[in-house]
Design a protein that fits this description.
Elements (H helix, E strand, L loop, with lengths): L2 E6 L4 H10 L8 E8 L2 E8 L2 H11 L6 E7 L14 E3 L3 E9 L2 H10 L9 H12 L4 H9 L4 E9 L6 E6 L4 E5 L2 E5 L11 E4 L5 E5 L2 E5 L11 E2 L4 H5 L6 H7 L1 H9 L3 E2 L2 E2 L8 H5 L4 E5 L1 H18 L3 E5 H4 L11 E6 L5 H12 L3 E6 L5 H5 L2 E4 L12 H20 L5 H36 L4 E6 L2 H17 L2 E6 L16 E6 L2 H15 L4 E7 L11 E5 L8 H18 L18
Parallel strand pairs: 17-18, 17-19, 19-20, 20-21, 22-23, 22-24, 24-25, 25-26
Antiparallel strand pairs: 1-4, 1-10, 2-3, 2-4, 5-6, 6-7, 7-8, 8-12, 9-10, 9-11, 11-14, 12-13, 15-16
Helix pairs in contact: 3-4, 4-5, 8-14, 8-15, 10-14, 10-16, 14-15, 15-18, 16-18
Bound molecules: 2-deoxy-2-amino glucitol-6-phosphate.
2-deoxy-2-amino glucitol-6-phosphate (AGP) binds next to helix 10.
């Protein structure tokens, strides 16, 4: 996620902007920049790398000196991390702006602007908005903003300077959050409260399509028609650390709630004209259609995302997929053949076992594809092909939003490969892709629906010593992730088990009152899963079923049922993962554990 800040007031603007951006570093970024009115002219300073690199450049070239400006930390989505692609971006003679979000129709807009004679220096969607804003600017900032927003599609928050208005700073948002902070004689814009909490705790929440105007006399708000809007002043009662958690008690809970945005930010730039397009990741349909064997190699949660990928890719693409734990793959002399595809999934991109596995695969002649969240990490740099996930930094040791975006990329890959192999029609590919796009809102809905029930049922788990997670097919793959989540943060032992395999031994573990969490979202397997549930219930288990909101399950089958919205069956793990994450979270909280930093664990295991 990018970070936006802005300042109007008597202080040294550059100093305030950089200081505020430092408080947004937790969001992750790969470049940074500021634009400041200096002697009534907009001066830009921007640099690839960290804020220290930007400061060094400014110290060398002279720090922009003024009292009104905007700043930005960029988490690259369109265009590589570079000074040219970093923000702020200029549009023509009049507009300089910073942006957080994704402009979904930027390619079409860019072509239109080129036809109108506009030229571009960067690969970003942001520069397109700046040029469009400039094209629409006839001297009235609100009118220019309104005209621009009438054609732009996507999610965005913008901080805007107009060259002929040196005493004014404008801000507008649609989806991406933006706040307007106020203090005595000064005002701010920011993507998040932590950026400004050092200067003020008073702020306004900008709503969709609302425009804020900040001047040395104060702030005002209006709608796209220019009608003024009265807004409620809010007060942040957080300390700095709480602010970085966005008001949530733990990073893990914040990151669970960030999943809808993370999915949208990850998949939207990889969909063109309604179907997946991974060409920016150097993955062409031709390259995909030639693949006859896939290995997915990862650790922990990332490996569980690979398990989801296995079921979906084999079902849709008819290509055999072997999922390997990286530390096993490395030492079992894998039968890699020339041309096999080895997919390495890693949030950190630095996991030693996964990195070593990728190097081994390359040495054996495989094509390697990395699915990585951390920009510029070792695995990302060394892979032949690369798909970045855009979950933003994941602070909690227990992975949630990274898992969600990893599986969303598994689906993109499966849909594109099946389509390029001619195994699904264009219409089916569009339908599946549309359903995938829709999961972002459905995850949001699911969180709201299931969180209360998860809080309650977690109480049933906190005294347990042993748990089973059971499921069939994709539900079994998802159970693995549910089990790991619970183990790693609540320290309760659990095991994911194929529901159909219980009767071959493990059912002997069932004791009176032992919790069993049954994942039953695959309707084609529901009856069989229910019969397995009855087997454990008959032996005293306390059963919680996670299923969709249309599943026919009689009341006597389970002790509790948590229902998630019904969507395309193969996509159900994206919704059913949410209650499993929340159950683990609340069980850990109830046991008084350090949820974000569980004992014995590190966020990235960079040693063998
Ligand atoms: C997940 O909750 C754990 N923190 C852990 O299993 C993690 O998924 C694993 O260490 C792999 O890390 P990576 O994705 O950064 O490679």
């Amino acid at each position: 996620m990018c970070g936006i800040v802005g300042y109007v007031g008597a202080k040294d603007c550059s100093e305030v902007l950089v200081s505020a951006l430092r408080k947004l570093e937790y969001r992750g970024y790969d470049s940074a920049g500021i634009a400041v009115f200096e002697n009534d002219k907009i001066r830009i300073a921007k640099e690839k790398g960290r804020l220290d690199d930007l400061q060094k450049r400014m110290d060398a070239e002279g720090v922009p000196c003024g009292h009104i400006g905007v700043g930005h930390t960029r988490w690259a989505t369109h265009g590589v991390p570079s000074a040219v692609n970093s923000h702020p971006h200029r549009g023509g003679k009049n507009v300089t702006l910073v942006h957080n979000g994704i402009i979904e129709n930027y390619k079409e807009l860019k072509e239109t602007l080129k036809d109108l004679g506009r030229t571009f220096v960067s690969e970003t969607d942001t520069e397109v908005v700046a040029q469009l804003m400039d094209f629409n600017y006839m001297g009235d900032p609100v009118q220019a903003i309104a005209r621009t927003l009438s054609v732009v599609e996507g999610s965005f928050a913008l901080g805007i300077l107009f060259a002929d208005r040196p005493g004014e700073l404008y801000a507008v948002r649609r989806e991406s959050p933006l706040i307007v902070g106020v203090a005595e004689g000064e005002s701010f814009i920011a993507s998040d409260v932590p950026a400004i909490i050092k200067y003020t705790t008073q702020y306004y929440l900008l709503e969709h399509d609302e425009i804020a105007k900040l001047t040395f006399d104060g702030v005002s708000f209006c709608d796209l028609e220019g009608n003024s809007i009265e807004k409620e002043l809010k007060v942040a009662d957080w300390d700095q650390e709480a602010a970085e958690k966005g008001g949530y008690e733990h990073y893990m809970l914040k990151e669970i709630h960030e999943q809808p945005t993370a999915v949208k930010t990850t998949i939207t730039p990889r969909i063109s004209d309604g179907v997946p397009n991974l060409e920016e990741c150097s993955i062409t349909p031709e390259r995909l259609s030639d693949i006859n064997q896939i290995y997915i190699v990862a650790c922990g949660t990332a490996m569980h995302a690979g398990m989801i990928g296995k079921y979906v890719i084999e079902k849709l693409c008819k290509v055999p997929v072997i999922v390997d734990i990286a530390s096993e793959f490395r030492y079992r002399d894998p039968l890699i053949k020339e041309g096999d595809l080895v997919v390495i999934i890693s949030q950190s991109g630095e996991t030693a076992d996964s990195l070593a596995a990728m190097r081994l695969a390359k040495k054996m002649g495989a094509q390697t594809l990395a699915i990585v969240n951390a920009k510029g990490s070792s695995i990302a740099r060394e892979a032949d092909m690369l798909i970045y996930t855009h979950a933003g930094p994941e602070i909690a040791v227990a992975s949630t939003k990274a898992y969600m975006v990893q599986i969303s990329v598994m689906y993109l890959l499966a849909f594109e490969m099946a389509y390029s192999k001619g195994l699904i029609s264009e219409e089916e590919c569009r339908r599946l892709t549309s359903e995938l796009v829709g999961t972002s809102d459905k995850i949001e809905m699911t969180i709201g629906l299931v969180e209360p029930a998860c809080k309650v049922f977690a109480q049933e788990l906190t005294e347990a010593e042993n748990l089973l997670y059971i499921g069939r097919g994709l539900d079994y793959a998802l159970s693995m992730e549910g089990s790991l989540k619970l183990k790693e943060i609540s320290y309760i032992h659990s095991e994911a088990y194929a529901a159909g395999e219980l009767k071959h031994g493990t059912i002997s573990l069932i004791t009176e009152g032992m919790p069993v969490i049954a994942v039953a979202t695959q309707n084609s397997l529901l009856d069989k899963t229910i019969s397995n549930i009855k087997e454990v219930k008959a032996r005293g288990a306390k059963v919680l079923i996670v299923c969709d909101d249309e599943a026919q399950i009689s009341d006597d089958v389970a002790d509790a049922v948590i229902r998630v919205p019904k969507i395309e069956e193969c996509l159900m793990p994206m919704l059913a993962a949410v209650p499993l994450q929340l159950l683990a979270y609340y069980a850990s909280v109830l046991r008084g554990n350090d949820v974000d930093k569980p004992r014995n664990l590190a966020k990235s295991v960079t040693v063998e």
